[in-house]
Model the fold of this input.
Amino acid sequence: MKILVPVKRVIDYNVKPRVKSDGSGVDLANVKMSMNPFDEISVEEAIRLKEGGKAEEIVAVSIGPAKAQETLRTALAMGADRAILVETDHDVEPLAVAKILKAIVDEEQPGLVILGKQAIDDDSNQTGQMLAALLGWGQGTFANTVEVGDGSVEVKREIDGGLQTVRLNLPAIVTTDLRLNEPRYASLPNIMKAKSKPLDQKTPGDYGVDTAPRLSTSNVSEPPKREAGEILEDVDALVTKLKNMGVA
Amino acid sequence: MKTLVWVEHDNQHVADATLATVTAASQLGEVHLLVAGSGCGGVADEAAKIEGVGKVHVADDAAYEHHLAENVAPLIADLMGHHDAFVAPATTTGKNVAPRVAALLDVMQISDILSVEDGDKCFTRPIYAGNAIATVTSSDEKLVITVRGTAFDKAAADGGSAEIEAVSGPGDAGLSSFVSEDIKASDRPELTSAKVIVSGGRALGSAEKFEEFITPLADKLGAGIGASRAAVDAGYVPNDYQVGQTGKIVAPELYIAIGISGAIQHLAGMKDSKTIVAINKDEDAPIFQVADYGLVADLFNVVPELTEKL
Ligand SMILES: Cc1cc2nc3c(=O)[nH]c(=O)nc-3n(C[C@H](O)[C@H](O)[C@H](O)COP(=O)(O)OP(=O)(O)OC[C@H]3O[C@@H](n4cnc5c(N)ncnc54)[C@H](O)[C@@H]3O)c2cc1C
Ligand SMILES: Nc1ncnc2c1ncn2[C@@H]1O[C@H](COP(=O)(O)O)[C@@H](O)[C@H]1O
Done:
């Protein structure tokens, strides 16, 4: 089985995003960018399935600017076998990403596509579910555990209230949650090796996908600021405050 | 605009998350509800009483019992022939189902809306863990929307008397099946509707300590219990206790963060709480920048004292 892993280049999760003063967006100039953390979990899961003999090949895909090559190299250094960059300088919305991924799935015929549950920049939480719909496949979203069987996959999902297990026919879509695994760091030798792994370059046009956005953003603003309050002396002071609030 | 709202339920009762979603939908136009489930007639009766609802569609079929997206999305896509917007709460069910509907309709979903703005199809939504708020306008003919529950008042659960209409859909898509569920029943208020939340972080150190120090305080306050990702990852509490960008979004009257540093991903889930109290031994912890009241102290000393004095 082949596994396809879409990885997005996003602002590093340790960086506090700054809104541009003209309301046009978030300032990404000279900001550290990394692989979306959920996508690291996806790559790790694919590697573990390969190591466990459930998969033969891992193909990483990214849709984004030329610099998304770095993100793909990271995936290759972790253990993906080859990569596809679909290069565009425009922001591509989840629906269009899903359409491009569908075209790649039609070509590559993977048994499993593992995506992150959410990109930490747009916070959309859509792409995997959309891809599943376009392909007519089952979807195991917010995965906590993935067990690949014969012709099917069992996914334990993190849901409000607890955990739910579903069984999906293969091929299928999985989206990863935080507890699925702990991604490995790429070792130096593997980073060197990744440089010679194949990386195909494509454009959205190669897949005949129209990436014109459906949503237009007229303004991006900062949320209302909270001011730091009072540091209290001791527990008694806090008790008084809580009693005054009427909660205790 | 005619809206179709996803009713969140467990085949027994309407879940609270539905009510804020109804409020958001009513700002767009006429509100119709969809109750998809199995043996869910009682839910439909409850749903029909929600104020402001025009009609309740009930799809009662074993295939819809567990709200598998593969089965319910085609049903919703069919019903969207007669509606202009599908509106779901941003719960794990809503997040699972709505994008599948959107793709079937060839629509770009608007996730997690905070407000409905004047003008046609215009909304605000948080991006970058709520560090920025985007105002977006859709050019799609139909809309698919998920709603952040804390951003809208709840519609009244009583007072309406909507007509109930049975509908049927394609049923089992044959792609997926339900295996099992592990849902812990609890008497505690649900996080997303709790008035008070006591939340614990990595500093608690173990599941036992979490139970020993956080639970009695929560009991005293009749509070829901939350946690940081670090506390969940370490196994102190179950995954659905996680508050934050990628967990639950909460906005109680009072949020007490104990041994939580205040990473942006955590703040994203709780900084709209009315009053925030932080207990942390590091006076430089970022949580104090959003806290109304802070106590710089060792939690193992002050939390028992606080519990006792309340
Ligand atoms: C993709 C992604 C998504 C994430 N999503 C979320 C999310 O949804 N929610 C979330 O919470 N996090 C999330 N995180 C994790 C987040 O970045 C932080 O790592 C996490 O919130 C830290 O948890 P913490 O504050 O409990 O632990 P720490 O940061 O380790 O803080 C522990 C705090 O306890 C204090 N302390 C220690 N001992 C004591 C004591 N005895 N008494 C009092 N104080 C003490 C310390 O001073 C410290 O401030 C996410 C991260 C990523 C990468
Ligand atoms: N531009 C992209 N390139 C590759 N993968 C993407 C891209 N956008 C989204 N994805 C995948 O879809 C997941 C969910 O993203 P989103 O729906 O935007 O929250 C991500 O974790 C990625 O796995």
Summary: Chain B has a mean pLDDT of 97. Chain B touches chain A through 91 residues (CB under 8 Å).
